[in-house]
Fold this protein.
Amino acid sequence: MTSSITRRRVLQTGVAAAALAGLPQFAWAAGPVVKLRIMETTDLHVNIFPYDYYRDAPDDSVGLARTASLVKAARAEARNALLFDNGDIIQGSPLGDYVSYRKGMKKGDLHPIVAAMNTLSYDCGTLGNHEFNYGLEFLQNSLGAAKFPVVCANAIKDNGETLYKPWLVLDREFTDEAGAKQKLKVGVIGFVPPQIVQWDKAHLDGRVTTIDIVEAAMRHVPDLKKAGADIVVALCHSGIAGGERKGGEENAALHLAKVDGIDVILTGHQHFVFPGGKEFNNIEGVDARKGTLHGKPAVMAGFWGSHLGLIDLDLVKEDDAWRIAQFRTEARPIYDRIDRKVVAKVDSEAGVIAAVRADHEATLTYVREPVGRTAVPIHSYFSLVSDDASVKLVAEAQAWYVADQLKSSAFKDLPILSAAAPFKAGGRGGANYFTDIKPGPLAIKDMADIYIYPNTIRVVKVTGAQVREWLERSAGIYNRIDPAMGGEQDLINPKFPAYNFDVIAGVRYKIDPTQASRYDDDGKLDAPDAHRIKDLTYDGKPIADDQQFLVVTNNYRAGGGGNFPGNDGTTIVFEAPDLTRDAIMRYIVEKKEVAPKADGSWSIAVPAGVTMTFTTGPNAAAYQPAGIKVEKMGDAPEGFVKYRIVG
């Protein structure tokens, strides 16, 4: 995947002339040439060992210990290299939960992810949105022992200063292609999604605000250039999305690429792989094959350590200035999938394993602690197409918790509904990314399996009309099915994350996928005449638009995450101090044994003459979904299995 940035005519003509003449590489260059390799990790989420704590089993598809082997090999291949991390490091696995909730982080303590990263000599990092999940003090204590600097230009303290330095200049000496030493100044600037002030309002309100990513870049990049930066690398914990820029975008990397002075963009947040990935096809300004955003080199290195991002730059010095003449981008994986099985490409780095082994072992003890039992299997293999016990358990626990909390409040007489989503439903997480808990003991690891995020409980007061629109937004997970076309049609929209597929327990309804989705992927009203939600009832009666309800949800959704109608922070009437996960655990401890039952409270209308298909994990064959009939059709790519819904 090779391209060039032709900023001057001499570069435009020189490369072609050298190729035609058969001259040695860089013979066309007027000045020194430095080959610089830039490496990225992103969205590690405290995945260090190649281990899945939810399944309590090894996993060759994850782990910084494996990525570290790629780093070592990549450095050996290049004369000059820099290593950056793009955020979301301290939250996202049971190891992270163990540190936060059991071990604790005092000032001066060494967080295990930081201990692992310190062995790899990172040059710089930035903040991800999940860095704020445990509060500012925990964040600052966690990063305090890092042997690498952290930059972030768009998170602002109440005194007007940035939470961390907005940018820095790395003074480095590199070896050029002639063997001479060259001094370069590499500017580094970082960004986080501005939505953190909504998603973690309880931790940030009155303490931290954010500004738009592009606005922050335009404010600070000129200062970087004034400081003498020869090239500028943007650590952008934000994804790649098209469309017109309106400001405040969560996924703003493509818009950031238009900012003059930024040369290289490291992206993340979406948990995708770039270059490559069908998610980025047909987006204007994106070349998913070459790995460019508006012509500038960019990379997104998957998630949980699955890939190492690489951008190889050929820098040419002309007129006392360094310019990018050519580049190559790559997302290098730690594993292959052969015969539908994950096969490791590299071994773990011993230094990383040694740095974290004690915390890994302590985490295993922590997650194996029992809290109760389940009388039925709890799995999520069919959670996107039918009522599901794993989602029902969360909804039941939330409603139980809130009913007790509000029993003496002014809202005690309002009906309580409960919204929950299937977090582990395959998708970009892979064919094994499903909850699958057998009947028997339930341990702490199962709580984290059922509910993977450290969200806290919120209650919103909404109308019947808002409940309906909430469900319409959720139903955007389905592609539009065309009965007139007939034949086989994919049901699931791969761009729609499972965590935005809210099921609301306490009401009954059907979803008609032959209608257009009322809302687009970003949550904007797109088809005002379309209505997918049918036969919406409460207590056996149609819901009135002005009927009042309490809906239990989480801080992310209630604060505006996912752009759901009725959820913008203004409808919140109760903020619980407890994590949703802890509420589920209390519910199980109280009940001693649970038996969540999918009772068919929602279903998909199946049109005649169409074969609606979806993919799930291979272990789904052991189960049958509730309220719907499905049949296995065969294998699908990446280890998944294809099913069809039978009418």
Notes: The mean pLDDT is 92. The chain has 15 helices and 39 strands.
